[in-house]
Specification:
Helix content: over 70%
Order of helices and strands: HHHHHHHHHHHHHHHHHHHH
Number of domains: 1
């Protein structure tokens, strides 16, 4: 089988075709050109089987949970709590932005949802408080990538499905890197705030005020506690945890806080179904593409090419990071994981890299790519919300990207950073 499907796929992407159709048309057209139409039925079978998976049911439920929380105004309570805790420091509103992203990550697991929901709150507020719109949009985009790294994470569920690794183990491996990125962004923001003279957002809140803000945000803050406690404690699987999250979000917003009316649920379900359909179709198309990659021997060709450059694992890990960062500039995180995981994963695992270590390195890389110019998806979201030019936001992003790339190299060359917690919990 020739590699024409790959070049057709690249051409279609360059021409602006949506990734999911490029993934399907590339192999189908290639088989027709090569006179191997007999495999068309196998492609359709792979497409269906790629979506017919119990672990993948977690994705629609997590999408639904995030939509309900967002529509129910939970996001505002997280922002208020973060502001009561750190809003009084210099550059406090930017710090609150990062802290809110960290807390919001435990609800949605989506960088796009984070950038959209929090961007609508923070970008106008930061601009009114003396920040440039480009900086406000940049910090929103930079902090939103924490969403898919702190569990629950849609990207990690996709990787676990395609590469057959433990979802719970991958969730555990993402906690420390996610916290490291948040801490790094806050330190960089503190430095920039002092250097540029950014304002203090508000006065220091009293402890009773902080207690009141905490009480209001408690239902949202309990969500990741319930999810991760249940998963790591063996109470339920990640898929069951996603269903629990959706049910919990529904009960809290509709019956406890009463911030969402029953009649308002229909558009929430419709939106969640549409998003889930897109994701699952993409997964099915990617599974089909991954099968063609395996059959054609492309994975072996790539492995031989990298090993031809060097057989030193440290050099190969450096090349891996550079390659994934470049890919992240042009390809969305989901397709990057689904297409490149089966190509690169087996080679590095055969070289002695722990499967969970490789998984977290890849997931963090492609997630940071969401905020990397020129095609980073959250950059476009932030630009749309802020009304600022993409080039200006990208320029303001550079210090934050440097922090995130530093974290990537730390977790790459010090595996215990990401593996210590999974090993402690018995997943590695």
């Amino acid at each position: 089988m020739s590699l024409s499907y790959f070049w057709i796929f690249v051409f279609l992407l360059a021409a602006g075709m949506p990734v999911v159709f490029a993934l399907l048309i590339g192999p189908g057209l290639s088989l027709t050109i090569d006179g191997e139409q007999v495999f068309h039925k196998a492609l359709l079978s792979r497409l269906y089987n790629g979506m017919d998976s119990f672990p993948l049911m977690a994705l629609p439920f997590f999408v639904l949970a995030g939509q309900i929380m967002n529509s129910g105004g939970i996001t505002r309570s997280i922002v208020d709590f973060s502001q009561s805790m750190i809003g009084h420091v210099r550059g406090g509103l930017a710090q609150v932005n990062i802290c809110s992203s960290l807390l919001f990550a435990g609800l949605s697991g989506s960088a796009v949802a984070d950038a959209s929901a929090l961007g609508k709150i923070f970008i106008p507020a930061m601009h009114q408080n003396g920040y440039s719109r480009s900086f406000a949009a940049a910090i929103t985009a930079a902090s939103s990538v924490i969403g898919p790294i702190i569990p629950p994470s849609g990207i990690m569920i996709l990787y676990a499905f395609i590469m057959n690794v433990s979802v719970a183990g991958l969730f555990a491996a993402g906690l420390v890197p996610g916290l490291m990125i948040a801490a790094g962004l806050m330190l960089m923001t503190n430095y920039l705030a002092r250097k540029r003279g950014y304002p203090v957002a508000n006065r220091r809140a009293t402890w009773p005020e902080r207690g009141a803000a905490f009480k209001t945000s408690l239902p949202a803050l309990l969500t990741p506690v319930i999810l991760l406690g249940g998963i790591f404690g063996g109470v339920f699987t990640p898929t069951e945890a996603a269903a629990v999250a959706a049910a919990y979000a529904l009960i809290i917003t509709v019956f406890v806080l009463r911030t969402l009316k029953l009649r308002e649920l229909f558009p929430v379900f419709v939106s969640s179904a549409a998003q889930s359909g897109i994701i699952l179709l993409l997964v099915g198309a990617s599974v089909t593409f991954a099968w063609i990659i395996t059959v054609s021997g492309l994975a072996g060709t790539v492995a031989d090419g990298m090993l031809g450059i060097s057989d030193n694992i440290l050099v190969l890990l450096l090349l891996l990071n550079i390659f994934l960062l470049l890919i992240g500039m042009f390809l969305d995180a989901g397709p990057a994981v689904l297409v490149l995981g089966p190509v690169l994963g087996p080679m590095f695992i055969d070289l002695g890299v722990h499967p969970l270590h490789f998984a977290i390195v890849m997931c963090v890389n492609v997630t940071v790519g969401l905020a990397t110019p020129p095609m980073g998806l959250v950059l476009f979201v932030s630009a749309n919300v802020s009304g600022e030019k993409l080039e200006k936001i990208a320029w303001q992003m550079l210090p934050f990207l440097a922090v995130e790339i530093l974290v990537i190299f730390l977790i790459t060359y010090f595996p215990e950073i990401s593996l210590a917690l999974p090993r402690l919990l018995g997943f590695a």
